[in-house]
Structure formats: structure tokens, C-alpha cells
Design brief:
Elements lengths: L6 H4 L2 H5 L21 E5 L1 H19 L2 E3 L2 E7 L3 E16 L2 E7 L2 E21 L8 E25 L2 E21 L3 H40 L3 E3 L4 E4 L7 E2 L4 E5 L3 E3 L26 E6 H13 L4 E4 L18 H6 L4 E8 L4 E4 L4 E15 L2 E21 L2 E18 L6 H24 L3 E2 L6 E11 L2 E10 L14
Antiparallel strand pairs: 1-12, 1-14, 2-4, 3-4, 4-6, 5-6, 6-7, 7-8, 9-10, 10-13, 11-12, 14-23, 15-16, 16-18, 17-18, 18-19, 19-20, 20-21, 22-23
């Protein structure tokens, strides 16, 4: 396995993979030539500035200390002749950046840091001999260098390569305007000779070393991106497909993405077809401007519903309720008389199964869901479980979604339901009485159970170390739009990334 990329490069990943941004500055949907994903996003100008600032902050700590190779040379000094000089332990120890910009465009994403200064130190040594003094004369000491007017620029191209993000460094360069050398010790004649002979060589060595370091880092970042999983595990049953669908869309002040965004089973089964509804949602992130947004089509939620239904886990056996008398035939004595007559005072349980995947509909005023269930009433007679009747329910529910940490969570409430008797071995039911009992069961037992799972939510594709903050949510026709700022944890240990990215 390749070593983990340096911290400064990892900072790009959450913004390339978490697919977050703010659409308040965008007036149109992301348009692409290929198939669109069910999660689309854009990094806003504010988000790009955040990326750039974090990138530069971490770059400074990653680039320093920077050790340069030894330099040695013979120089001519008047009256002394040839003097052999060597510079060693050349170290760039500190860089300060006064201004920086990030700009996406047709050629890629350009990042430029300018007006930077840097501090350097080195050891020097010289030796010479003359015809007057036929022995070697030498001296050594320290020198300190002040770098002025440093400028570093890179241009990165991003492409979709088989569902992963491919980075290409198209341009990279470092320029130093001037350096000032201060000697600790040494004769005056040596200072001018050192400056004249080595100034250009020192500048060139710094420029080449920084450029090389950046190029190596981009290669490592690209390798890291290729190794990122294309699915985010949710649990042992489902995973979120986070493959890229198209090349990133670069605008003057934003970067847009499309990813698949659908849930799949683990292990995989055949993927169902979903319809993608395009809708305008640029007006839903209100001022103040957020760094990031994530836009989810309702197909993402319905794919989760289909995945868990196909896995066969949408079943629930209920043998305990707050009003336990409801799970004894004595409690049904007047509702289903023949049930009590045939199985007097026997305990019961309810075997509830979803007969089709729940359907979810996102609208501006609410998020609705329709669920069809079969509820089989089972009598526990001695050691035998006896199915005695089956009720079919069509349930309409609605609710809201919220951000809980880095998860999309929610809560549901009951709107209405219809109840029919599907079959019975204990005669007819008084359905108007059964409807009252079932309504109490749905509100007091079923919904709290469902909400206990909804409140946990499912993870948004955000790499560890970054957290959504001050998030808001808006709904439009078929889409949920999350608008958020993001914070970075300095305690984040990047060495863990190759083992667990999410």
C-alpha cells in the first residue's frame, strides 16, 4: 500500500468527495454531457476560499523544514586566487504567505500564493592556499538568508476516470525575487564573493526543491484518490455509491460535481432504474452565504428503501407493547369474539411485514411516505405459534429531515391509514374497533420504533476530520438541499486514512 499523502493534500479530498457547496451563487443546474448523478453539488466561492486557506496553512507545515542539497564551488578572489567554498545543511525553516488566490477555469483549478517571505540557514566553509603561504587556510561558520517575493503557483486538472477523480498537474512553478544573506563570522572579502558566486544557485535550489515537493505531493494525492472506495458502507446491508458520473464542472467562481448517490446492497444485487428529476434549487441556500451544499434527489432515499426491502429485513415481530393487554386474546374479547373463544387468555404477537418498498416523495412543504404492510396476528398457544388473521394496511406518513453531525437524519409522523381484513381463521372482525386499536398501536409503538432508527440517519460522504456546522435544510420538488459551513479538526490523524476513509 502506498504511504498516506501529506496533510496539505488531504484537505482537497473532503471537498472533492463530500460533494458540498452553496447554490446561492448559481443560477442554473449543473449541466454535463454524460449521465447525471442523483447527488449533485457545487463548491461555492466561499467554500473554495476555505479550501485554499486550509491548503496553504497545511502546506506551510508540510514544506518546512525543507532541506536542500549541498552546494560547493571554487571561486576567484582578487589577490587570493582560487577559493574552494562549500555550503551545507541548507534549510528552509519558515514561510509566511501574505496573499493567495484560488481560481477555477477552463484550464483547471489555479492556486497562487504570492508575496511570501521565508527564513533559511546554512553552514559555510572555505579553504585556500597561496604562493605566499604554502599551507591551507580555512574558515567556517553559519549564514542566515531572508527570502523576499516568493511566488508559488499550480494548475490542477480534474477528470472522471472510471468513477474516480483523476488529478493531473498541468502547471507548477516557484519564483524567488530576491534573497539577503547574513554571515555569522568570515572575512568581509568572503561575503561579497559568496553573494556573487552563490546567490543565483541558492535561489535556483529553493525554487527546484519546492516545485519538486509539490509535484510529488500531487502524485501521491492522485494515487490516494484512485484508492478511495467507490462505496460508503452504511451497515452490513447497504452502501452508498459515491462514484463520479462526469468530469467536474469548472466555472469562474465554483466547482460542480455529479455522483451516483444511490444505495446498493452488500453483496450486490441487480440495480433498479430510477428517474432523475431536474429542478431549480439555487434559491434555497439563503444569506449569509454558506461554504457548501449537498443536493439529494428523492431517488437516493427510495434506493435506500428498495435496498433494505430486497434484503428482506423489513419485518418486525412485536411481542411487547406499553399496553401489554393488547397482546392477549382477552383484550380482543369484544373486538374479535371468536378469537377469544378459540384461544382464551392466550398471549399474542404481531408479525409485521412490508409487502413493497416504501415510497418517498419530497415536496416543498413536507417529505411524504407511503407504506403497505401486512400484519399477521399470531397466537402463542403452548409452544406453538398459530397465525389466525392478517390485516393489510396502507399508511401515509410525513416528516422532516435534519442534520445530526455528518448524518442526514429525520422524524416521521402518521397522516392517515386504511385497514382491510386480508384473511381470517377466527371469523369476521369489527373493523371500526380494530381500526381504533391499530391507530393507537401505530402512534405509540410503531412510529417511535421507526423514529429511533430515523434519528440515527445515514452518513453523508464526508471524510473523517471534517464536520458540518450551522447547517440548514430546504426541500423542493424531488430534492433535499443541505446548506452548511464546515470545520476542520486539527487533531485529525491523517495516518489513519488508508484504513478507514469515512
Amino acid at each position: 500500500m502506498a504511504p498516506p499523502p501529506p496533510p496539505l493534500l488531504l484537505l482537497l479530498i473532503p471537498f472533492l468527495l463530500s460533494l458540498l457547496s452553496n447554490p446561492a451563487i448559481a443560477k442554473t443546474e449543473i449541466q454535463s454531457d454524460g449521465p447525471q448523478g442523483f447527488i449533485s453539488a457545487m463548491i461555492s466561492e466561499k467554500g473554495l476560499v476555505f479550501v485554499k486557506d486550509l491548503l496553504i496553512q497545511q502546506a506551510l507545515s508540510s514544506l518546512t523544514p525543507l532541506h536542500l542539497p549541498k552546494i560547493q564551488k571554487s571561486i576567484k578572489i582578487p589577490f587570493l586566487g582560487g577559493v574552494h567554498v562549500s555550503l551545507s545543511n541548507i534549510t528552509l525553516s519558515q514561510i509566511n504567505v501574505s496573499s493567495s488566490v484560488i481560481k477555477p477555469g477552463d484550464t483547471g483549478v489555479v492556486i497562487v500564493a504570492s508575496g511570501a517571505t521565508a527564513n533559511m540557514s546554512m553552514d559555510w566553509r572555505y579553504s585556500y592556499s597561496t604562493w605566499l603561504i604554502p599551507v591551507d587556510i580555512s574558515d567556517k561558520g553559519r549564514a542566515f538568508i531572508q527570502v523576499e517575493g516568493m511566488e508559488v503557483g499550480i494548475t490542477i486538472k480534474m477528470k472522471n476516470q472510471e468513477g474516480s477523480l483523476k488529478l493531473n498537474l498541468s502547471e507548477c512553478g516557484c519564483y524567488l525575487k530576491d534573497i539577503s544573506i547574513t554571515l555569522d563570522g568570515g572575512a568581509s572579502w568572503f561575503y561579497q564573493g559568496l553573494v556573487d558566486a552563490f546567490e543565483g544557485q541558492i535561489i535556483s535550489a529553493v525554487e527546484n526543491a519546492i516545485t519538486k515537493k509539490i509535484k510529488e505531493g500531487i502524485v501521491r494525492l492522485d494515487t490516494f484518490l484512485q484508492e478511495l472506495p467507490k462505496e460508503v458502507p452504511v451497515d452490513d446491508i447497504a452502501a452508498l455509491n459515491v462514484t463520479f458520473m462526469n468530469d467536474p464542472l469548472l466555472r469562474n467562481s465554483s466547482v460542480g460535481f455529479d455522483i451516483n448517490g444511490l444505495f446498493t446492497t452488500v453483496p450486490k444485487v441487480a440495480t433498479l432504474n430510477y428517474h432523475l428529476t431536474n429542478s431549480q434549487h439555487s434559491a434555497f441556500c439563503k444569506a449569509p452565504l454558506k461554504m457548501l451544499w449537498i443536493s439529494l434527489d428523492e431517488a437516493v432515499l427510495n434506493s435506500a428503501s428498495d435496498t433494505y426491502f430486497q434484503a428482506g429485513i423489513m419485518t418486525w415481530t412485536v411481542d411487547k407493547v406499553p399496553e401489554q393487554s393488547l397482546l392477549n386474546t382477552a383484550g380482543w374479547k369484544y373486538i374479535v369474539p371468536q378469537l377469544y373463544k378459540k384461544y382464551p387468555n392466550d398471549d399474542m404477537q404481531l408479525n409485521i411485514t412490508s409487502t413493497s418498498p416504501p415510497r418517498i416523495l419530497v415536496a416543498p412543504d413536507k417529505i411524504g411516505a407511503s407504506v403497505t404492510l401486512d400484519m399477521v396476528i399470531e397466537v402463542l398457544d403452548a409452544n406453538e405459534i398459530i397465525p389466525v388473521a392478517c390485516l393489510s394496511m396502507d399508511i401515509s406518513a410525513s416528516g422532516f429531515v435534519e442534520i445530526s453531525g455528518n448524518n442526514l437524519a429525520g422524524e416521521a409522523g402518521l397522516d392517515d391509514f386504511t385497514l382491510t381484513l386480508k384473511w381470517s381463521k377466527v371469523g369476521n372482525f369489527h373493523m371500526y374497533l380494530v381500526q381504533t386499536v391499530v391507530r393507537v398501536f401505530l402512534k405509540d409503538v410503531a412510529l417511535p420504533y421507526v423514529n429511533s432508527h430515523l434519528k440515527k440517519g445515514f452518513p453523508l460522504p464526508i471524510i473523517r476530520g471534517f464536520t458540518l456546522t450551522d447547517a440548514s435544510i430546504a426541500c423542493t420538488y424531488s430534492r433535499i438541499v443541505v446548506c452548511s459551513d464546515v470545520v476542520f479538526s486539527d487533531s485529525f490523524n491523517v495516518k489513519r486514512l488508508p484504513r478507514k476513509y469515512w
